[in-house]
Amino acid sequence: MKSVALVASAVVLSACSAVGPDYDRPEIDTPDAFRDRDASAVSAAEIARWWDAFGDPELSALVGETLAGNLDLEAAVRRIDAARAAVGIAESDWLPTVDASGGYVRTRPFGIPNVKTQNQWSLGGSVAWELDLFGRIRRSVEAATATLEAEVEDVRGVQVALAAETASAYLELRSLQERLAIARSNVASQEQSQSITAERFRVGMTAGLDPAQADLNLFTTRASIPGLRVGVRRARHRLAVLTGRDPRALDERLAAEGSLPAAPETLMVGIPADLLQNRPDVRAAERRLAAQSASVGVAVAARYPALNLTGSWDWLATDPSGIFDDATETGSVGPLLSVPIFNAGRLRLNVESEEAVLQQLEASLRSQVLVAQEEVENALVAVAQDRLEIDLLGEAARAAERTVDLSLQLYTSGQSDFQDVLQAERSLFSLQDDLAVSRLTLLLDMVELYRALGGGWAFGDGGTEPSAVSAE
To answer: Contact 417/411 with Cβ under 8 angstroms?
Structure first.
């Protein structure tokens, strides 16, 4: 009865004690608001589907297809399965280990007369159960569980990156198509100028230099078109692969030329503190810190005594039919206490090593939060300056259009040189192309802003989050 009471006490003790640090999420100070923006709370759900704010159904559809079919995301989800299995392995230490064995040995002596051959049959079993007196198993389970949660956040981080990459590829496609349209429009305008110079040269109103310069201008503009076509193909191929398809799978679907969507006037930003909850990489770093805190506990528990309940049973017989006779049975049962006495400081140094890693991960977490704030601030500055640049380029492009019309009128009436027409046409094409590129840059910086905010993983009703992305 004393032994039973001792075992019961050990079980109760193992259920409520664990050495090592109990994890507390570190307090991380953040500013009240981002620079030049009023503080406002924005939940993860509000920026979960940020791409819908661009008002382009094709963009929304492609992002959803990427999150449902991307193969890199599927590979990342499989890492969750491995982490979930690791939790099960750690939890299995709570239960006893039971093994069985059996064998047969035939002994035949050589060179010894009158000694018969002997047969021996054996059957045995053993059981071992570690009583978690100081929390080694509990801390191991805590570490494995936190690691699983970190893997879930890593997958969400892949979702965030893929949503941003898909949106960027789509916007680049539409920008290239828009720039193609601009190039073709300028080619048509310059063909008219070429016809005017050719006619004036034919009737002797100008020298041969004007038609040659008109040809130079026209062919230079035409030369920009093949590169833009290559970019269009590459963007379509990238989108197809991102959605988990053959590179040519979207060629027909995206063959029709489109234009860039309008930039949303309102930005969903929130406050810096939201980054701690919205950014999967920050959440993953915090979970790995929790896992390492539990690993410190595992290392500390290794310095304490370990108590195992063990038992074994064996049956030996010369004939299988007598294997369970009482005379052949042997067995033992009892507690086994192991106490670390001397290990040249290895266990102490292991604790110090795990504590150093814990401090390293906490510093990394704080650094990650600062980097997240930096990325958001940079994106906000870029968006503001992009809008200003677009306004100025728009004014310049409109002025260039008026200049082209006026210079061509003056040239045809003989009041100006053809150089004025050439310069105006070149400026117009360059400014229109720069304006298209700036509009793309603004949208890409918005995409970067929402990526930096952690948008793209907290899906609401009808979302496309893979069902396997869960720690449950």
So the answer is: yes
Locate 217 and state its tokens: 């201008």
Owner of token pair 């040189």:
417
445 vs 451: CA distance, rounded Å: 10
Amino acid at 200: R
Query: Which residue blocks in 203-272 are alpha helix, DSSP H?
Result: 209-242
Give the number of other Cβ atoms within 10 Å of residue 461's Cβ: 4
pTM here is 0.85
Cα dihedral 58, 62, 68, 70 in deg (nearest 10): 170
* Residues 380, 270 contacting (CB under 8 angstroms): no
Instruction: Name the residue among 413, 382, 130, 122 with its Cα closest to residue 267.
Output: 382
**What confidence score (pLDDT) does residue 188 get?**
93
CB-CB contact of 413 with 340 (8 Å): no
Please give the helix or strand (H or E) that residue 97 lies within, else none: strand 97-107
pLDDT at residue 11 in the model: 52
Dump strand ranges (E) for 19-95. Answer: none
| Strands 329-338, 118-131: pairing kind | unpaired
Please write the tens of the pLDDT for every residue from 380-413.
999 999 999 999 999 999 999 999 999 989 988 8
Q: Work out the percent of the chain whose per-residue pLDDT is above 70.
A: 90
